[in-house]
From TrEMBL:
Protein name, as recorded: OST48 middle domain-containing protein
Keyword Membrane applies: yes
Taxonomy, superkingdom: Eukaryota
PANTHER family: DOLICHYL-DIPHOSPHOOLIGOSACCHARIDE--PROTEIN GLYCOSYLTRANSFERASE 48 KDA SUBUNIT
Limits of the OST48 middle domain: 13-152
Alphabetical keyword list: Membrane, Transmembrane, Transmembrane helix
Coiled coil: none
InterPro entries: DDOST_48_kDa_subunit, OST48_MD
Membrane spanning residue stretches: 128-150
Organism annotation: Eruca vesicaria subsp. sativa (Garden rocket)
């Protein structure tokens, strides 16, 4: 085996602050992604050093494209991002092509779900004009009813 061979190790993703990989993400979750990339040095697998490895969070087209940062010691490339406000079946994709190196093509599929009915905010601030209109209509109805019933 000659020089320029790349090998991908563990591809790991999880929510920020957690260690286990979930079976499903929710929209707007904060997540961390990491992948280990090693290079054959002629005698052993050594950590690969590069600053142009990218991950795509992909559903039909990339919704998130992030450059992975590395610690340069263990060959571990990592990043964190927020899941987009779109639900469906996404893939983490790492497609790395560099002249003189083997091509890496990794993907892992993960579903993204919307909020459940009880996970939304109780009162949405942008809906305050509608709340005001509703309460104004109720107040107007009560005033009209009072005037109509008790006016002589």
């Amino acid at each position: 085996m000659g020089l320029g061979h790349l090998k991908a190790g563990s591809l790991v993703h999880h929510r920020v602050g957690e260690a286990d990989e979930p079976a499903i993400y929710r929209i707007k979750d904060d997540l961390e992604f990491s992948v280990e990339i090693l290079e054959w040095s002629g005698k052993s697998w050594e950590p690969y050093v590069a600053d142009d490895v990218q991950v795509q969070f992909y559903m039909m087209s990339p919704y998130v494209l992030k450059t992975l940062s590395t610690d340069n010691k263990e060959g571990l490339f990592h990043t964190s991002f927020k899941v987009p406000d779109v639900y469906g079946v996404f893939q983490f994709k790492v497609e790395y092509e560099k002249l003189g190196y083997t091509t890496l093509s990794l993907s892992k599929q993960i579903p993204v779900r919307p909020y459940r009915h009880n996970e939304y905010e109780r009162f949405i601030p942008t809906a305050y004009p509608y709340y005001g209109a509703c309460f104004t209509t109720m107040a107007g109805f009560f005033v009209f009813s009072f005037v109509y019933l008790y006016h002589k």
